[in-house]
Amino acid sequence: MNMIVVLRSFVFNALFFGWSTVYLTICLPILLLPPRASSWVGKIWTRTTYALLRFICKLDYEVIGRENFPEGPFIVASKHQSAWETMVFSVLLDHPCYIMKRELNWIPLFGWFTARSGAIGIDRSGGASALKRLVALSQKVIAEKRPIIIFPEGTRVQPTQKIPYQPGVAALYSQLKVPVVPVALNSGYFWRRRAFAKRPGKITIEILPAIPPGMPRKKFLPVLEERIETACAKLPVPVHHDSPFSAKQLRERDEEKAAGAET
């Protein structure tokens, strides 16, 4: 691995964890205020984190399709490749509600603010009862006219990997009767799952046209997956001389993009 990338990543991590601890500790009294105040704590935390990434790791981002966010409450269904996108919607949207595994709400400082901001923690082993709870809590969020953020894959995956989408997003679409906004991105090429290195470049996140409510539930999930995966396949693939992805993987991805362009 490129030693400059390693060094920059080390400096970023040191500053990130250090300043996060100090900042969130200073902000502890805000936990006594309404949930929106904790969302603002998260917004400032995210902006500063992205500034550190840009300044130290030379990693920036661009957003395509902001105009596709509809008026009123809606659900964002985002591709999940990295820790990066777990933060971005706090700066793109006003007071969003994240759906995340409940263990994240138990993390000292960070988890206290996510829980206070109204994030919905789910028990991924809870089966039908967990799904019912998710729908019930999400209905309250929609009643408050807040956007909901969900990652349909349920976990981070590599850009060259595909796994089935989980049924939770289909249940929300069916029960909440609001638009679902698919989101494509390529963050995994720069900040891999459980990886130390943050590679330089520009992450692209694309907000796709919303899927209006009313589609049959069984049809919705394949449509959502097809739109996200097709859009992801068209996003730029960075060329790093120390890329963790093999030439074969990238060549296969390029072939998929070319085949999609022909059709």
Give the ordered list of helices and strands. Answer: HHEEHEHEHEHEEHH
Give the proportion of residues in helices: 40-55%
Class inferred from helices and paired strands? alpha/beta
Strand content: 5-15%
Low-confidence stretches: none
Instruction: Give the rounded overall mean pLDDT.
Output: 90
Shape: globular
Question: How many beta-strand elements?
Answer: 7
Indicate the radius of gyration in whole angstroms.
Answer: 19 Å
Termini Cα gap = 38 Å
Annotation field: number of helices: 8
Widest sheet: strand ordering: 1-7-6-2-5-3-4
Specify the biggest β-sheet: 7 strands, mixed
Give a quick rundown of the structure.
With 263 residues, this protein is of the alpha/beta class. Helix 1 packs antiparallel against helix 2, helix 5 crosses helix 6 (168-176) and helix 6 packs across helix 7.
Would you spell out the secondary-structure blueprint of this structure?
Blueprint: H1 3-26, H2 35-56, E1 59-64, E2 75-78, H3 85-92, E3 97-101, H4 110-116, E4 120-122, H5 127-143, E5 148-150, H6 168-176, E6 180-185, E7 201-207, H7 217-234, H8 247-262
Helix pairs in contact: 1-2, 2-3, 5-6, 6-7
Commentary on this structure:
This protein is an alpha/beta fold. Helices cover 46% and strands 13% of the residues. It has helices at 3-26, 35-56, 85-92, 110-116, 127-143, 168-176, 217-234, 247-262; strands at 59-64, 75-78, 97-101, 120-122, 148-150, 180-185, 201-207. Strand 3 (97-101), helix 4 (110-116) and strand 4 (120-122) form a beta-alpha-beta unit. Helix 5 packs across helix 6 and helix 6 (168-176) crosses helix 7. 31% of the residues are buried. The mean pLDDT is 90.
